[in-house]
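Worked example 3 (structure in, sequence out).
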């Protein structure tokens, strides 16, 4: 017995091919982003450095990163509530954006409008501000070498993400969340750099 055709008209065949092509492109884009990230890490990584000294430690940060890290934080009530406690707001809608892009594609009908997207970004920034405070508190217990190594790794991650976003194509919400991620990655790197620089300064003064 022959297999039933999925599409009965030319229009249905074209629609089917278009949907399959779109799904394939999304999967391909995800794999391409990961390959780009892996290649960039491999080409720029200083992992494996046997020890950190004045020649292997990072002495300065990219201008673009510093500009991002110095951008002011939101002041909206949503940001302040989210930054205060995870119990204040329902953050289940934004947890998928905790990591680096690409993110799982959503139907166009679920794409948030401009006002709602701004609210999502404020809540995400508040969430990341909480994580930043926790990371800064943990940093106080870390050794100088541990901080220097984290700085090297995080700078490499920021540079890799910045490179990917130069050609990143996604929905408006995914683009906005990806750039929010880049911004907060810049803050992580800058905080580590400041901490490492203070320790170096104390060491040179002894």
């Amino acid at each position: 017995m022959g297999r039933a055709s999925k599409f009965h008209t030319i229009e249905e065949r074209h629609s089917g091919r278009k949907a399959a092509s779109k799904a394939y492109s999304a999967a391909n884009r995800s794999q391409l982003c990961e390959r780009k990230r892996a290649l960039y890490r491999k080409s720029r990584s200083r992992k494996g450095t046997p020890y950190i000294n004045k020649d292997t430690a990072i002495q300065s940060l990219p201008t673009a990163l510093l500009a991002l890290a110095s951008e002011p934080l939101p002041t909206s009530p949503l940001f302040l509530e989210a930054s205060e406690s995870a119990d204040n707001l329902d953050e289940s809608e934004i947890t998928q954006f905790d990591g680096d892009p690409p993110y799982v594609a959503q139907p166009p009908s679920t794409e948030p409008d401009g006002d709602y997207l701004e609210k999502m970004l404020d809540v995400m920034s508040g969430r990341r501000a909480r994580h930043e405070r926790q990371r800064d508190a943990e940093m106080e217990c870390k050794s100088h070498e541990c901080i220097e190594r984290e700085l090297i790794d995080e700078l490499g991650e920021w540079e890799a993400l910045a490179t990917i976003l130069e050609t990143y194509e996604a929905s408006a919400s995914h683009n906005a969340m990806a750039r929010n991620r880049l911004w907060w990655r810049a803050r992580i790197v800058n905080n580590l750099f400041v901490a490492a620089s203070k320790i170096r300064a104390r060491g040179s003064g002894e």
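Notes: Residues 10-44 form the longest helix (35 residues). The CA atoms of residues 69 and 190 lie 7 Å apart.
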